[in-house]
Amino acid sequence: MAAARRNKLVAAAQPGFLNLNTSLDHSLPNPSRRKRVNKNKKKNWNKHSDIQDVEDFLDDVRLQERATGGLISDKPDETLFFVDTGEEAKNVQKDGVQKKGKASRPLRIDLILQHDSLVPPPKNVLAYQQPNAKKLRRIAQKAEQLAAKGVLPRRQKLLQRRKAVAETEAPVQTLANNHPDRPYYDLWGGESEINGDPWYLEQTKKKLVKRPEKLNEKPSALPAVEVIPPGGSYNPEFFSHQALLREAHEVEVKKQKEELKVERQLAVNREDTATEETVFQEQVEGLLEEEEEEEPREDGEGPTEDTTANQSAPREKKTEKQRKREKAEKEKDQQKQAERELKGRRQQLFQLRSIKVELKRRDLRTKQRQAQRRARQEAQKSLPRRLGKLKFQAPDLEVQLSDEIPSSLRTLKPEGSILKDRFKSLQKRNLIEPRERAKFKRRHKLKYVEKRAFKAIA
User: Fold this and answer.
1) Which keywords are on file for this protein (predicted)?
2) Which long-range contacts link 416-423 to residues 24+ away (Cβ below 8 Å)?
């Protein structure tokens, strides 16, 4: 701001500067005598400094910028003056044809709404900014380099390949709506066939993207609603009811075996229990000191001076003759190993029949394993998978004992819950993970305080 103000002051100091505001007249002398004030003090700068002439000058400069778009002294004569040739010359066009009627003038309302300030608007820096400008510039530079080498980008290759396929294929001719051979459109029928470029149809959402085959597979082969066995009826047959009771009995026996197994694993061995004697030995241990006499070693046990000297003595350096002998022995061993392998390959020629039998046996074993693996995979499709930290627990079988079977439908007592049955079915079909009800856990412990009631005070 200071630099712009200084430039305007310098421009106004030029001899050709013109004042647009006529109210400013600096030619008149100031009648009042200027007061002498000490301006070394800061408090007197604004109090006794007369800057009215500077303010008037700046107002005049701003007025010229708004009205004429700049200082009048800087403008050429062609923009300030014109040659008046009369009204007749104004109504004559360049080709010499006389205009008919009055010249068209803008409406008054348009002149009011027109922008009258000639000061250019400030530059909007944000309008010139572009997100990811450096990244886009690098991509453009890389594309130019690849184009100079003759390498096309992947997107361009795909477009050219698609264009070539479209040119080779026969164009599909769509019939007009009023054509008699056009197929009849059934409003209540199925989806009509959409003709056109598949890429265009996918991009315009007129044709759905091909659904992956994995999403069409069901998470479990079990049905959504499992039918209860015939033994669970309110008036079942004897044999079907006994079969259901046997199944429930096997489930209970399996649970009991698991509980007994846990009890056996957690049982304490009586032999490992502490007795009075073992407790006393543990208490006394370390209090009594036993004197151990070191027995002298026999002559043959201890290390001799000769052995220690041989161990500490450094190894002697091998001679050239020893190295050559070792190298020859090593090459001889390698040659024997190669001859042994060659002899083994030759012997295999006479074992072709046994090798074929072994290969057939191996193929048969592989096929059996593959069949077992497929059977195991098919069996696992009907079993609940481990989807969370909890295992799926099958619900108890809803079965009535023989003496609990009602005599009529009116005396039948309802058992189970439809909501729980559906919830367990979702877990069994791997649609949701097994869950359990969240337990309330108190964050802070309860604090009990004894308070003295005012009534108990005598």
Assistant:
1) Nucleus, Ribosome biogenesis
2) 420/395, 421/395
pLDDT tens per residue, range 74-89: 888 888 887 877 665 5
Quick one: tokens of 339? 């001859």
Can you name the residues that pair with 92 across neighbouring β-strands? Answer: 98
**92 φ, ψ (degrees, to nearest 5):** -95, 130
What is the distance between the alpha carbons of residues 373 and 105, in angstroms, rounded to a whole number?
A: 94
Residue 72 and residue 80 in contact, taking contact as beta carbons nearer than 8 Å:
yes
Instruction: Tell me how far apart the alpha carbons of residues 178 and 185 are, in angstroms, rounded to a whole number.
Output: 12
Assess contact for 446 and 400: CB atoms under 8 A.
no
CB distance 405 to 233 below 8 Å: no
pLDDT in tens, 389-419: 999 999 988 888 888 888 888 888 888 889 9
Cβ distance 59 to 10 under 8 Å? no
Q: Given CA atoms 229, 232, 235, 239 in this order, what sign does their dihedral have?
A: positive
pLDDT band at 375 (very low <50, low <70, confident <90, very high): very high
254-264 pLDDT per residue, tens? 999 999 999 99
Rounded CA separation 327/340 (Å): 20
| Nearest by Cα to 403 from 251, 241, 197 | 241
User: 169 φ, ψ to 5°?
Assistant: -70, 150
How high is the mean pLDDT of the chain?
Answer: 80
Q: Beta partners for 98? A: 92
Residue 151 backbone dihedrals phi, psi, to 5 degrees: -100, 130
How many Cα atoms sit within 13 Å of 19 on the Cβ side? Answer: 14
CA 274-280-285 angle, 5° bins? 110
- C-alpha 168/C-alpha 273 separation (Å) is 90
Report yes or no: 64 and 20 within 8 Å, Cβ to Cβ: yes
Closest CA to 425 of 223, 248, 229: 223
- Contact by Cβ (8 Å): 406, 412: yes
Tokens representing 288 are 């009594």
H/E run at residue 197: none
